[in-house]
Design brief:
Mean pLDDT: 81
Shape: globular
CATH topology: Growth Hormone, Chain: A
Number of helices: 20
Strand content: under 5%
Structural class: mainly alpha
CATH architecture: Up-down Bundle
Radius of gyration: 21 Å
Order of helices and strands: HHHHHHHHHHHHHHHHHHHH
């Protein structure tokens, strides 16, 4: 009697089918908490910096977690490829919670930054582990929907997170913004734990055996992608990749601190960027830094888009507090608009599906982000009303939502069970390292303009320099975006 394959029924049932429900809810809960923490910290950091006299470490408080996150991503990618994603997910969530505890109890800016570094290590690993879970649980046809659900998980944090964080910081203490999230991490992990039991040592599709025909098909898929990811994974396995990740992270941290060397700060900054780029090469598919068509350009576009968007975003509350005299509570509304638009953009691309091809979605998204940053730059220089900044960031968020999910889908589509961890970590590494380098650069620009401008112009020039740099990065993402698909698909 022939066996009936339930896969087609599950694919049409969607991500909330009973076989997927716990994984969907648990994964979205973890994304929810990460989103809340990210938006909340960005909102309160100007207040924290002022209270702890930590303006010199402001950029490092954001760039540091992204840098250490690279180490976590590589570790989780290696671990997931060899033993499955369950262990990495548990360990990363524990590390994330520990970092929140350290930051929440910090009494000095260096201590807070230390907590953020630990938090970033766990957060980076958690991202990769979740991506591998998705690849092994959901069929490819559901990948756009689960990534759209991830974006939707940002909606409530984006609506209440910045406002709530500002309110807590003003009425109680900013410490509780960190400590409060810790109390929610454990329930989220308990929710997803039962669904993870079946993933221990399980390969995609539930079978560890593979026919020679299936193996040949996967090899053809890798070759057609032109990414070299499999060879990339093999040429620097295990501890070697961790060493490269650690070197990249140290280079980013060194870049953040290069302004402490007045005589050789410029040389140190250039050297740090060069070391970071050299160190990242074994961690991403071949051709990523040269924008080779296919998966390499997908990874590079992800990094450039993240660098432009997040490099500008962390300074928006700072701009509104310092230049427009907003309270931290209302300054966070800028982030709310951008995050809601991000979720809306992701939902739109999910509904359009194949009617909006990947390449077009990525090109439109990159153009929207660049246009928004340029509008923020012009608003800063010409002293336009703060409403222009808020409106601009709605468009930026919409652009990120439109292309972010598609870049994730393309990465998984060009992967197989042997390199899901490597490619997922490469995407997340590009994400984090791009943002970390951008934040380090904007921090140096902000400090340089603050030190060299007069008191009358100091309020404008540092912010203008930041947004000008991120606009240049945005131009790069627009230039690379058309190369995410191979020539015959263009």
């Amino acid at each position: 009697m022939p066996r009936t394959d339930p896969a087609p029924a599950l694919e049409t049932a969607g991500i909330f089918h009973r076989d997927y429900l716990l994984v969907t809810l648990g994964a979205c809960a973890l994304v929810f908490l990460a989103a809340f923490e990210s938006l909340a910290v960005t909102t309160i950091m100007p207040l924290v910096s002022r209270e702890l006299d930590g303006a010199a470490l402001y950029a490092l408080a954001f760039a540091g977690p992204l840098a250490t996150g690279v180490i976590g991503m590589v570790a989780a990618g290696n671990w997931s490829d060899r033993r499955g994603p369950v262990g990495p997910l548990y360990a990363s969530v524990a590390m994330f919670a520990l970092g929140l505890l350290i930051a929440g109890t910090a009494g000095t800016m260096p201590a807070l930054v230390a907590g953020r570094l630990v938090q970033g290590l766990g957060g980076g690993a958690m991202t990769v582990a979740l991506y591998v879970v998705l690849a092994r649980v959901y069929p490819p046809v559901l990948h756009p929907k689960i990534f759209a659900a991830f974006s939707a998980a940002w909606v409530i944090p984006s609506l209440v997170g910045p406002f709530a964080a500002g309110l807590v910081a003003q009425l109680a203490s900013w410490h509780w913004v960190f400590l409060g999230v810790v109390g929610l991490v454990v329930p989220a992990l308990l929710m997803i734990a039962p669904a993870l039991q079946g993933l221990r040592g399980r390969s995609p599709g539930g079978s560890s055996k593979k026919t020679s025909k299936e193996t040949a098909k996967e090899t053809t898929k890798e070759t057609a992608a032109g990414d070299g990811s499999a060879s990339g994974a093999s040429r620097s396995p295990g501890y070697g990749r961790l060493a490269w990740a650690a070197l990249a992270a140290l280079a980013v941290l060194g870049l953040n601190l290069s302004d402490r060397l007045p005589a050789a700060g410029g040389i140190a900054a250039v050297a740090a960027v060069a070391v970071a780029l050299i160190a990242v090469r074994p961690l991403v598919p071949r051709g990523t830094l040269t924008a080779r068509r296919g998966l390499p350009s997908v990874i590079l576009t992800r990094g450039l888009a993240s660098a432009a968007f997040f490099g500008a975003e962390v300074y928006l509350p700072y701009l509104l507090v310092e230049r427009y005299v907003f309270s931290p509570t209302f300054a966070g509304l800028t982030l709310t608009g951008g995050a809601v638009a991000w979720a809306a953009g992701s939902a739109i691309q999910g509904r359009l599906g194949a009617r909006l091809d990947h390449r077009r979605a990525v090109r439109i998204g990159a153009a929207l982000v660049l246009g928004a940053i340029v509008l923020v730059l012009v608003t800063t220089v010409l002293h336009w009303p703060a409403a222009a900044v808020i409106i601009a960031w709605v468009f930026a968020g919409g652009g990120m939502g439109l292309m972010y999910a598609r870049l994730s889908v393309m990465t998984l589509a060009l992967s197989n069970k042997h390199n899901e961890g490597f490619n997922s970590s490469a995407m997340s590494i590009s994400d984090s390292l791009g943002g970390a380098l951008a934040l380090a650069g904007t921090g140096l620009v902000f400090a340089a303009f603050t030190a060299t401008t007069t008191a009358a112009g100091a309020g404008v020039a540092p912010f203008a320099g930041v947004f000008a740099l991120t606009a240049v990065i945005g131009v790069g993402s627009v230039a690379v975006a058309p190369r995410v698909s191979r020539r015959q698909e263009s």
